[in-house]
Every structure is written in structure tokens, then in C-alpha cells.
Amino acid sequence: MYKYHCLNPISEVGLAQLDENYVVTGNADEADAILVRSAKMHDMEFSRNLKAIARAGAGVNNIPLERCADEGIVVFNTPGANANGVKELVIAGMLLAARDIIGGINWVQEYEEDGDIAKITEKKKKAFAGTELQGKKLGVIGLGAIGVRVANVAVHLGMDVYGYDPYVSVDAAWNLSRSIHHAKTVDELYKECDYITIHVPALDDTKGMIDKNAISLMKDGVVILNLARDVLVNQEDIVDALVSGKVRSYVTDFPTKEIVGVKNAIVIPHLGASTEESEDNCAKMAAAELRDFLENGNITHSVNYPDCNMGVKGDGERITILHKNIPNMLGQFTTLLAGENMNIALMTNKSKKEYAYTMIDVDSEVSADLEEQLTSVDGVLKVRVIR
Ligand SMILES: NC(=O)c1ccc[n+]([C@@H]2O[C@H](COP(=O)([O-])OP(=O)(O)OC[C@H]3O[C@@H](n4cnc5c(N)ncnc54)[C@H](O)[C@@H]3O)[C@@H](O)[C@H]2O)c1
Ligand SMILES: O=C(O)CC[C@@H](O)C(=O)O
Questions:
Q1: What pTM was computed for the model?
Q2: CA count, 13 A, side-chain hemisphere, 224
Q3: CATH homologous superfamily of 309-387
Q4: Contact 208 CB / ligand 1 (< 6 Å)
């Protein structure tokens, strides 16, 4: 029986996949796995029993990834599972910036009781007029699950689209419309585009990438959209640019104390992934990743350990070892198994940066003593025997 703990509400459709072998617990310290959305986990202490954290979503900047890796906790995310939801909100954001739809609706509500509303409307509506998206240049920074979808749909809206992503994956490149211009530098995109939307993770080299220097390269009256993370855009610089009129509108999914209430900031309360479909997709993928890891030891879509798959565990026992990616680990493991006269039926080892994972199927029972010896090998972070 495995225990899981939810730090945020997780869609029931996903949780339903955790069958009779799973029970929810309100106590994170006794959980084998944690499911989370945006709850901040940096200050949390993790119990030795915790094996995995699944982020039902894409961004993992709320989780201390390296500390988890050092403590032998595998962190998963759900790539692409909410990308369509975010894409649709980006398009809505562009439309809200192009015309003063929000101002117009608010104005109508003020006249709710007025019998002459139809007549006044025709007089006043010009105050809320705007422009169309067709024919405008859109720059997409980050061509991952969301960026590719936004770029492709913008092409269908008649926009001239520029994409920038120095690390674009082969899959993403295949999915990208051929009519999208490849910006070789982000500065080129800044200089060309009327709308700029950012879809990169919050990393050391992306935090604050849209600052006063970047903004100074952009066209006067540019619209910037940020449905990725607040920290990607320097908050003081964007406020200054809105006040001066250099930036016509800033659409963000991240309310901060600096941006809320600033004229021409369209601030959405982090609704990008808040659709039934995205919530279900993320929860289903997260639950499936956790099950496969807890029951078979397989790792899919981890952000701090390598992906590794030896299929469904058979009748024999499976040893899984999370360890540092340093020389001679496999040699030490196999020597210890040989010392116990154990036959290895199947073995896989994968590494990712400083961390590695070894899975070993054996034909006989793993003793507590062998488990202890494997755990004591220098560089081993966690050993688990799936029986
Ligand atoms: N508002 C929301 O509710 C919501 C929902 C999902 C994701 N997000 C945010 O959006 C981000 C992107 O999501 P995704 O699903 O598209 O992720 P993804 O991992 O599929 O794509 C990210 C892309 O950014 C690129 N990239 C990384 N560094 C870059 C740089 N310096 N310059 C240009 N490109 C760079 C990567 O190569 C990758 O292609 C997430 O990390 C998350 O922070 C927000
Ligand atoms: O869980 C959410 O609502 C937001 C998720 C989003 O920020 C993500 O990075 O996937």
C-alpha cells in the first residue's frame, strides 16, 4: 500500500488512477509520494520515506530540485499537459491588449440601469476601439510545448511570427509551422515585433531577461505577454515602460505588488492552466508517472533524474538505486551482488548531469543485509527494492 499527499487540489480524474493500492494521507511525513501544483516547497523538510514528487504542471521553480536529488527524491513534471490551456489564454491576452475590451465591458456595467444604454453606446464606443492581430508581427521566446502552439495558431490568425529558442528540441522543430521566421538572436525578435510573448522556464539565465535593456530595443508601443513566470520580467522596468508608454500593454498571469493597478497592465490571477482539460491532463499524467515509478521503478519525465525504463516488473525482485554520477558505481553494485551469489537478470544504468539511476532485476530475494551494503556505497543516495 502506497501513501500519497496532495499539497494543492489535484483533479479527481487523475487521482482516480491511484487504485486500491493507494491511500491519501494528510501527513506529508508518512507519504511515499507528493502531488503538487504551485505550492512552494523550498522551505519543506522531506522525510526519508518520501520517494517522489509529481508536479501536475510544467514549471518546477517551486520545488528544490537539487536538494530532492541529493535526498534521493525523484521529481516529475507533466510536459505539455496544460500547454493548450495556456495557448488559448495567450491568444485571449493578445485580443484583450489589441482592443480595450475590458474597459468597454466595465463601462457598460456602469450604465447597467440606464434605459438609454443602446444610444449612448454608439456615441461612446470609439473610446474602446483598437487594432487587429492580422498582419502584426508576433515574437515567441521559447518554442517548447506552449511556444510552438502559440506560434502556430498565430500564423492562422494572419500574424507574421518570429520564434527564438537556442535549445529548441527536434520534436518542437518538427511541429513548428514552416512559415515562422527563425530569429537567430533574441535582439532581432525584440527589434522586429509588435507583440512579444515569453514561454521559457524560470532559470538563472532567464530570470529578468526582459528588463530595461531588452525593452529599449523593442518598438515603441510594443505589447508584452508573460504567462510563464513573474521573475522573467523585471517588475520595476516593466512598470516604468508602461508609465512612459514605451510598452503599450503588459499581459501577465502573475500578479505582483508592483504590477497590480498599473495602467495598461492586464493582470490575470494565474489562470493559464486552470481549465478542466488541463487540470485533468496534468493530474492523469502525474498519477501515471508516480505509479510507474513506485510500482516498477521506471522514471518518465523526471526533471532531476534521468528517464529510465525496464518495463513492468516481473515476478522477481527489482533493485533501484539513485546515486551520484561518478565512476565505478556499477562495478561496486555488481561486486556486492556477486558476493551474495545473486544472478542479475537485467540491468540498466542512466545518468543526467551529476545524478544517475541503476535498475537491476534479480532472480532471488534481496536480503536486508545486501540492501544495507548497497546503501552504504559512497555516492548512493537511495536504494529501494520493489518486491
Ligand atoms: N501560466 C501558467 O499557468 C503556466 C502553465 C504552464 C507553463 N507555464 C510556464 O511556462 C513555461 C514554459 O512551459 P512549456 O510547457 O512550454 O515548457 P517547455 O519546457 O516545453 O518549453 C520551454 C522552452 O523554453 C526554451 N528555452 C529555455 N531557455 C531559453 C532561453 N534562454 N531562450 C529561449 N528559449 C529558451 C526551451 O528550449 C524550451 O523549448 C514553464 O516553464 C512554466 O514556467 C505557465
Ligand atoms: O497548476 C497551476 O495552476 C499552474 C501551473 C503552471 O504554472 C505550470 O507551470 O504548469
A1: 0.96
A2: 34
A3: ACT domain (3.30.70.260)
A4: no
